[in-house]
Amino acid sequence: MSEARRKRDLERQLSPQQIKAAAILVQNEWDAGDGGKKKTRDQIAEAVGISRSTLFEWLRKPEFVEYMNVLTDMDLQAIRSEFNALLVKAMRGGNNGIPSVKALDLYARRFGLLKDHVVTETVAADKPRTMTEDEMDKALNEIAAMGKR
Predict the structure, then answer these.
(1) Which end of the chain is less congested by CB atoms within 10 angstroms, N or C?
(2) Residue with more model confidence, 128 or 49
(3) At 131, is the secondary structure helix, strand, or coil?
(4) pLDDT tens for residues 112-148?
(5) How many Cβ atoms from other residues are within 10 Å of residue 56's Cβ?
(6) Which residues are CB-contacts of 107 (< 8 A; sequence separation ≥ 6)?
(7) Helix and strand element counts for the chain (H, E)
(8) Is 91 in contact with 100 (CB distance < 8 Å)?
(9) Which residues have a Cβ under 8 Å from the Cβ of 82 and sit 6 or more positions away?
(10) Cα 15–19–24 angle (5° rounding)?
């Protein structure tokens, strides 16, 4: 389901005041993250025309929290181009002229150019595994060392 459709479906379950409160709460977090002054829950409740306790009740409602999450996700999608620009800048050397290995890794993973590979060894239960002479010596030495303890 698209974010816009999820948003509409959730808005049908919320009152206009709840929709306004959720938008203010989300914007409050974004503003605080940009170095702005964060509003208190009392200030937010007053702006919406409700009591602080009502706001806290709403924050315990799954559909209200989900609506806030949808708003946040949509805000994040809106700044994807800014993220991409910063990623490219970091890959090209950022402010210090040295490319960021982490940025290169993120880029490679994002476009499937780099994958984590896990190598596992499976042995059939009915087929014994043959050991090399070195492996056998190592195993015997480990057993002998356990007996000396």
Answers:
(1) C
(2) 49
(3) coil
(4) 887 666 656 565 666 666 778 888 778 777 777 776 6
(5) 11
(6) 87, 91, 113
(7) 8, 0
(8) yes
(9) none
(10) 145
